[in-house]
Design a protein that fits this description.
Elements lengths: L3 E4 L2 E4 L4 E7 L14 H14 L3 E5 L12 H15 L5 E5 L3 H10 L3 E4 L8 H8 L3 E4 L17 H19 L6 E4 L8 H10 L11 E3 L5 H6 L7 H13 L4 E4 L2 H13 L3
Parallel strand pairs: 3-4, 3-10, 4-5, 5-6, 6-7, 7-8, 9-10
Antiparallel strand pairs: 1-2
Helix pairs in contact: 1-2, 2-3, 3-4, 8-9
The chain binds ligand 7PJ.
Pfam families: Pterin_bind (PF00809)
Keywords: Folate biosynthesis, Magnesium, Metal-binding, Transferase
GO cellular component, one term: cytosol
Length: about 280
């Protein structure tokens, strides 16, 4: 089944996995925090990821690393809107990584095509605003909140518990007037998950294809590679690429990464060997 995402006057074919490049416009993100937090460096990094083959640029102004402080609306807008305006001049999709309805609204007005919400539109007003904006939405699973999620994650069955969450959120979206063809699902690696949970999801991600919706996978540089490989954040490229390769082979539609050029190579090799 080939999905085609449509937003504004653009469409994005998901017949093979595509790359979402991560642009953190935050001063405190865990893996590249502080590196891209000025307007110029953020724009430069976006341009580079586009040149390397990213088809979506995911722009976020709120750090969701465990224990990160809350960011005010004004601060989040000041971080992301100028960068969105810059990237919107390019031929690429823009995703806004936020949970705040007002940021969703202003970001889409400034040029964003897709809403990526780690809280799956559960903040007050988010469902309604997303429905009115009429753009695709990525619903990510998280257990707990960014502040507490890694304390003691527990599941009866991590795959089935996430599937129940997806079912409920898909229904909430449809009831709010969001089109089914606008929904993307993401199991949320590292968001209230132990290493064992993350590995179970990596291996069994095809289970989420039961919803007949595109699946987004984000495991780039995450702490699962610290726990599995004992690697610091700047040493997680090989692990991240292996995760991207497995996800591509298991049929993931969108892969969210920091290292665009390297992941493009991996996906090209996977693609030519597809049976
Ligand atoms: C994810 C995300 C993810 C989606 C972050 C990081 C932490 N959005 N935002 N999926 N992770 N959809 O960049 O590693 O896994 S923030």
């Amino acid at each position: 089944m080939t999905y085609v995402l449509k937003s504004k006057n653009k469409s994005l074919e998901l017949s093979k996995p595509i790359i979402m490049g991560i642009l953190n416009a935050t001063p405190d993100s865990f893996s590249d925090g502080g590196q891209f937090n000025t307007y110029e460096t953020a724009c430069q990094h976006a341009d580079e990821m586009i040149a390397h083959g990213a088809q979506i640029i995911d722009i976020g102004g709120e750090s969701t690393r465990p224990g990160a402080p809350d960011v005010s609306l004004e601060e989040e807008l000041a971080r992301v809107i100028p960068v969105i305006e810059h990237v919107s001049k390019k031929d690429v999709w823009i995703s806004i990584d936020t949970s705040k309805p007002e940021v969703m609204k202003q970001a889409v007005e400034a040029g964003a095509h897709l809403i990526n919400d780690v809280r799956a539109l559960q903040e007050p007003g988010a469902l309604e605003v997303a429905a009115s904006l009429n753009v695709p939405v990525c619903l990510m699973h998280m257990q707990g909140t960014p502040r507490t999620m890694q304390t003691a994650p527990k599941y009866q069955d991590v795959i089935e518990d996430i599937a129940v969450f997806f079912e409920q959120r898909i229904k909430a979206c449809i009831d709010a007037g969001i089109k089914r063809e606008h929904i993307i699902l993401d199991p949320g690696f590292g968001f209230g998950k132990t290493l064992e949970h993350n590995l179970t999801i990596l291996k069994n991600q095809k289970a989420f294809h039961r919803f007949d919706l595109p699946v987004l996978i984000g495991l780039s540089r995450k702490s699962m590679f610290k726990h599995l490989l004992n690697r610091d954040v700047e040493e997680r490229l090989a692990g991240s690429l292996a995760g991207a390769m497995i996800s591509a082979q298991k049929g993931a539609h969108i892969i969210r990464v920091h290292d665009v050029a390297e992941t493009v190579d991996v996906l090209t090799v996977v693609d030519v060997c597809q049976e």
